[in-house]
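Exercise 7.
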Amino acid sequence: MTYILDASRVDEWDQNVLIPAQNILSAFLNYDHLPSPKSISSIADSILSELQVK
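Solution. The predicted structure, written as tokens, is:
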């Protein structure tokens, strides 16, 4: 699975990159259900939806 995190705004790094990455990693390491890559952010949804159509 590929996850897209929005690192375009340094002032929102924790909210947009650090916390989502920690949540994904924690779920992976604990054998929990991984979130859909599209659910991580609106940018991820947009990019992955566009790739899926092609």
